[in-house]
Automatic annotation (TrEMBL):
<dbReference type="Pfam" id="PF00857">
    <property type="entry name" value="Isochorismatase"/>
</dbReference>
<comment type="pathway">
    <text>Cofactor biosynthesis; nicotinate biosynthesis; nicotinate from nicotinamide: step 1/1.</text>
</comment>
<dbReference type="InterPro" id="IPR036380">
    <property type="entry name" value="Isochorismatase-like_sf"/>
</dbReference>
<keyword id="KW-0662">Pyridine nucleotide biosynthesis</keyword>
<dbReference type="InterPro" id="IPR052347">
    <property type="entry name" value="Isochorismatase_Nicotinamidase"/>
</dbReference>
<feature type="domain" description="Isochorismatase-like">
    <location>
        <begin position="26"/>
        <end position="222"/>
    </location>
</feature>
<keyword id="KW-0479">Metal-binding</keyword>
<dbReference type="InterPro" id="IPR000868">
    <property type="entry name" value="Isochorismatase-like_dom"/>
</dbReference>
<protein>
    <recommendedName>
        <fullName>nicotinamidase</fullName>
        <ecNumber>3.5.1.19</ecNumber>
    </recommendedName>
</protein>
<dbReference type="GO" id="GO:0008936">
    <property type="term" value="F:nicotinamidase activity"/>
</dbReference>
<comment type="similarity">
    <text>Belongs to the isochorismatase family.</text>
</comment>
<keyword id="KW-0378">Hydrolase</keyword>
């Protein structure tokens, strides 16, 4: 059971030290879009429940960045693009194994829009990802080949931002890979699990949490 967020707005890690957002910190809001919320094409269970928590957390940050899944119709990660394949099966792609998804977050559709309840007046950048037809993109920093950058790292460094707080959808995919890449690029990384929700394919939430810890991300319940 997830408890209500405490006050004041401080994060307590498992090691007991406190973290309060400062001028070199940024809130990274990952894929809080209609298709990932209840009623959407690829709904994350309870996905819309993160919205009020993200709005609350964002009040403590001077900088906020959003990511947005932005697929063309017929994207190669859609099961419908592979005759005979079912959603959530996998296929070998030139860049590695790819999970096949229901069609979702198609450019220009309502499903691709941000959840209407998000209120982030300090958002300074939207990173659109997954718009290349032949490659998917989970991470806020790279396409799934692990090499093609989104430009987010350069933006953060240019702005003097060195610590990233990750929230959003889904814990076991886009949050996980964003946190792992943030650490690989040398950014301090905090994942606020209370403001994330996961899909959980065959234990993928537990695997994702383990991978983020192994990468050196700090995982907290709330800030």
């Amino acid at each position: 059971m997830i408890l209500p967020p405490p006050a004041p707005m401080m994060a307590q890690s498992s090691k007991g030290f406190a973290m309060k957002p400062g001028e070199t910190d940024v809130l990274l809001v990952i894929d809080v879009q209609n298709d990932f919320c209840p009623g959407g094409a690829l709904a994350v269970p309870d996905g819309d429940s993160v919205v009020p928590d993200i709005n609350r957390i964002a009040m403590s940050f001077d900088r906020c960045v959003l990511t947005q899944d932005w697929h063309p119709a017929g994207h190669s990660s859609f099961a419908s693009s592979h005759p005979g394949r079912q959603p959530y099966s996998t296929v070998a792609m030139p860049y590695g194994e790819q999970t096949l998804w229901p069609d979702h977050c198609v450019q220009g559709t309502k499903g691709a829009e941000f959840h209407p309840g998000l209120a982030l007046p300090r958002a300074g950048l939207v990173i659109r990802k997954g718009f290349r037809p032949a490659i998917d993109s989970y991470s806020a920093f790279f396409e799934n080949d692990g090499r093609t950058p989104t430009g987010l790292a350069g933006y953060l460094r240019e702005c003097g931002l060195s610590r990233i707080f990750c929230v959003g959808l889904a814990t076991d995919f886009c949050v996980r890979y964003s946190a792992e890449d943030a650490r690989r690029l040398g950014f301090e990384t905090v994942v606020v699990l209370g403001a994330c929700r996961g899909i959980d394919l065959d234990g993928s939430i537990a695997a994702g949490i383990g991978a983020m810890k192994a990468a050196g991300a700090v995982l907290v319940d709330w800030i």
